[in-house]
Amino acid sequence: AEYDQFVGEALAIRAICYFDLMQMYSKPYHMNSGAGQGVPLRLKANKSAAENDLAPSTVAEVYTQILKDLNDAEPLAAATHGSTSLNITRIHKNTIIAYKTRVYLHMHNWAQVVAESAKIVPAASPFTATSGVAHTLNANYANIFATPNASAESIFSLPMTSANNAGTQNHLAHYFGSGSGESYYLASGAGSVVAAMNGADARRVMMATVGGQLYLTKYRDQTTRTDNPPVIRWAEVLLNRAEAIVRAGNAVTQSAVDLLNAVRTRSYAAGAYTLGDFADVNAFYDAILLERNMEFLGEGIRNMDLMRLGLTIPGKSGGTFGTVAAIPNTSQSYYWPVPDSELSYNTLMTPNN
């Protein structure tokens, strides 16, 4: 049983890593139905430089492997690790199911998002996981990120301690706080989400003005760098399910609105939607994408949301680092180029342009 658990964790971690590589170095799945160039699928260990050469797989082939790894891992994984800290930082069944909802969302396979999320999301509030680890929304948004990062909302995070943490300029409190100036674009630069946030929203409260500019404060430990980087949270699973229900059925339903409201009203109690607030499905999509932008600000999800829907990455201006141009989905800059180091060591790899 312990061996199976380790195998399940390894498979799930490989799937997560390949999914992240695809977000950086390949066109989104929905472009050409996955026929574009992906990355090399290394499914066995390199033991010598002679094994460096490996041709890239297609986007569809890499996604097929990601789902195979996750599906193979699910029956091997433990239902729970018995403690909150381990359930956050070790793979279990609900981690795998939750991550599959993200993968299928990027594939526009709405029916599978609905099917996977139905394994653990109940039909009605309070939306606490029905099996395995009892994931649920934390009643207080700020407490999700408070030390020791032990919220039941956290499905998977990377553990950090004072003795084992990110480098001095690689921790989240540095990037998104006033120490670097970089998060100004996220929080208050032109095209930011702040203008759409009510002042009473708990997510708006978790920002601070320094030197006349607004920064995120959800990551707080500048000194010992112990903030756990979140990989996936329960709130995302609920919003994934809400969006997929509407896209699969091409109709706004009360169940989808309830899921959206569960996340929204946790931070902004007066902001509940009614079914009548949505004139059509597009109005719902706009609302849920806005909610995701506010909910996951600084958690690495916004750019993935833009790319999975083929939306332009908006430009920014007026910040410490000057103007950044908008990037349409037709631009080569929509995703990262293959690094020169990969092209040098792997002669079968080709540029992804």
Descriptors:
single chain, globular, 353 residues
Question: Mind sketching the topology for me?
Answer:
Blueprint: H1 2-25, H2 59-73, H3 84-89, H4 93-106, H5 110-117, E1 154-157, H6 172-176, H7 184-187, H8 202-205, E2 207-210, E3 213-216, E4 230-233, H9 234-249, H10 254-267, H11 281-295, H12 302-308, E5 316-319, E6 322-324, H13 340-345
Antiparallel strand pairs: 1-4, 2-3, 5-6
Helix pairs in contact: 1-2, 2-4, 4-5, 4-9, 5-9, 9-10, 9-11
Summarize the model shown:
This protein is mostly helical.
Helix-and-strand structural type: mainly alpha
**Which range does the strand content fall in?**
5-15%
Overall average residue pLDDT? 93
Alpha plus pi helix count? 13
Helix fraction bin: 25-40%
Q: Calculate Rg over CA atoms.
A: 20 Å
Uncertain spans: none
Strand order of the largest sheet: 1-4
Question: Major beta sheet, specifics?
Answer: 2 strands, antiparallel
Order of helices and strands: HHHHHEHHHEEEHHHHEEH
| Total strands | 6
Overall shape: globular
Quote the distance from N terminus to C terminus.
45 Å
